[in-house]
Design goal:
The chain has 270 residues and is an alpha/beta fold. The protein has helices spanning 19-27, 36-45, 60-72, 92-101, 114-122, 139-149, 165-176, 199-204, 231-240, 245-256, 260-267, and strands at 4-6, 30-33, 52-54, 77-80, 106-108, 129-133, 155-160, 180-185, 193-198, 215-219. It has three domains: 4-108, Tetrapyrrole methylase, N-terminal domain (Cobalt-precorrin-4 Transmethylase, domain 1, 3-Layer(aba) Sandwich); 114-219, Tetrapyrrole methylase, C-terminal domain (Methyltransferase, Cobalt-precorrin-4 Transmethylase, Domain 2, 2-Layer Sandwich), CATH 3.30.950; 231-267, no CATH class. The protein has a five-stranded parallel sheet, sandwiched between helices. The chain has a five-stranded mixed sheet with strand order 6-7-10-8-9.
């Protein structure tokens, strides 16, 4: 064995680990992990005793030189995240870049990844997709990035935390309008749940999504509407529901991907 080994860990169920990963963790010298407490629980479950060092987004810049020195001295490292594939939504790429610069062997083991499971569970197109991961915490920055993504035709995959999930869905609806969405949480755990709904339903009824667990949000790609839309009739439906003319214009523009100016012109006749 030589160099560094990226070892995927279970995203929920502890049985979701490969024999090769277990064998690697048993034979390397040191394990670098995000949270030593989380990793120790996994290693104890499989009776693996190895030195652990903490490596995460807050300390990786100071840890990389230490790890590189050990690797160049002939020691072997495993890099594991709290769950899933290392290098996805964690600072794994930084240590890999440092290894590549020094010609240190890199070994990536196959294994669990939450976004792949969430994509397949969604039932949406898997022919082409883009993994986005976490968007910025601040709403205005999040909206700015969503604006850049709204016309992408491939399926889009996001990660989101429980305390932001409802705000994220509202921002998503504000920018994307109504689309098919799949939300998976607690993947491979006892309370695993996948909700497949139109985005407008999730925004109007927050109780549909329990703000617990980590979320994989899969969103239908942009589709140009080829059907003819009776703009006046759609506006009238919303006005009858009690929306103001301004809000009705906004909703029709979103739901049917029609320029707001055109919808506004039609509203003047009502």
């Amino acid at each position: 064995m030589k160099g560094i080994y990226l070892c995927p860990t279970p995203i929920g169920n502890l049985d979701d680990i490969t024999l090769r990963t277990l064998k690697t963790l048993e034979n390397i010298d040191i394990i670098a992990c995000e949270d030593t407490r989380v990793s120790k629980a996994l290693l104890d479950h499989y009776n693996i005793k190895k030195p652990l060092i903490s490596y995460h987004k807050f300390n990786y810049m100071t840890k990389i030189p230490e790890i590189i020195n050990d690797l160049e001295d002939g020691k072997t490292y495993a890099f594991i995240s709290d769950a899933g594939m290392p290098g996805i939504s964690d600072p794994g790429t930084e240590i890999l870049s440092a290894c590549i610069e020094r010609d240190i062997p890199i070994n990536v083991l196959p294994g669990p990844s939450a976004f792949v499971v969430g994509l397949v569970l969604s039932g949406l197109s898997t022919d082409r997709f883009t993994f986005i991961g976490f968007l910025p915490e601040k709403s205005n920055q999040r909206i700015k990035e969503l604006e850049e993504l709204k016309t992408k035709k491939e399926t889009l995959i996001f990660y989101e935390a429980p305390h932001r999930i409802h705000k994220f869905l509202k921002d998503l609806y504000q920018v994307f309008g109504n689309r098919k969405v799949s939300i998976s949480r607690e993947i491979s755990k006892y309370y695993e749940e996948t909700i497949r709904k139109d985005l407008v339903d999730l925004v109007e009824d927050e109780d549909l999504v329990k703000a617990k667990g980590e979320f994989v949000v899969v969103v239908e790609g942009y589709q140009e509407k080829e059907i003819e839309v009776n703009i006046e009739a759609e506006l009238q439906k919303l006005l009858d529901r009690g929306l103001s003319k301004k809000d009705a214009v906004k909703e029709v523009s979103k739901n049917f991907n029609i320029k707001k100016n055109l919808v506004y012109e039609k509203s003047l006749d009502l």
